[in-house]
Amino acid sequence: MKRIFVFSLMVLLFCTQGYAFGQQPPAIAKEIPTLTVSGTGEISAAPDMAVVQLGAVAQNENAADAQKQVNRIVGSILDAVKAEGIAQEKMATAELTLSPVYERISRLPPDQPNLPRIVGYQASNVVRIEIDQMNKIGDVIDAGIRAGANRLEGLFFELRDDTRFRKQALQQAVLNAREKAGGIAETLKLRIVKILEITEEGVRTVRPQFRIQKLDMMAAESTPIQPGRTQVNASVAIRYEIGSTGN
């Protein structure tokens, strides 16, 4: 009985070891050679909308009087802009502030406190105006200045819908990346197998901005405006699997 047990144990050990010896080691994943390139695209388009920010600033010893003075000027600005054919819904308040004005104090002896004293208040009101007719930009600005505007925060040119131009910029970026990859592969005598990954790295619309420094020189004659061009930039990154050409 004891011999039978020992024999059975030896057979079991032999079978177990034989199974272990017969196993194949786990396969090591082969690293795929890759090539990553970036591509850029740029589309230029004529803006079809302008945004101008006009307003007024006034100062008075009394806060309420300063605000009333600004409100009267801005009311006149809005009426003048409406007279140029700009609809009410195209105008909105962009900034409204009221802040104290402090007396300028010269240096005092160290034993005297240098406490600021309020001598008045400054009120400001700026209106955002959307202009769909590009040939009306100068007329709208001039009308606002004649109505009393003494602040021009800036003039911006935009696209109502830049979807088409963003798509074109992305397509151009992809073609640029593909051309780069082809040039690199050809130089190194490699071949492009397939795309492994493509990443959009961003699409940005660069809007031209026009700033005017001196308002007092603009009211006397018509303001010439040149919108320029809006740039839509896109960038992508593409990772390719590459292989040998066999040469």
List the defining traits of the structure above.
247 residues, 2 domains, 37% strand, alpha+beta, Alpha-Beta Plaits, single chain, Translation Initiation Factor IF3
Fold blueprint:
Elements: H1 2-22, E1 34-45, E2 49-60, H2 63-83, E3 91-102, E4 118-131, H3 137-146, E5 151-158, H4 163-187, E6 190-206, E7 209-210, E8 230-244
Antiparallel strand pairs: 1-8, 2-4, 2-5, 3-4, 5-7, 6-8
Helix pairs in contact: 2-3
Description:
The chain is of the alpha+beta class. The chain folds into 2 domains: 31-47 and 160-208 and 221-247, 2-Layer Sandwich (Translation Initiation Factor IF3), CATH 3.30.110; 49-103 and 114-158, 2-Layer Sandwich (Alpha-Beta Plaits), CATH 3.30.70.2970. It has 4 helices and 8 strands; from the N terminus they run αββαββαβαβββ. The strands form 2 sheets. Strands 3-4-2-5-7 form a 5-stranded antiparallel sheet.
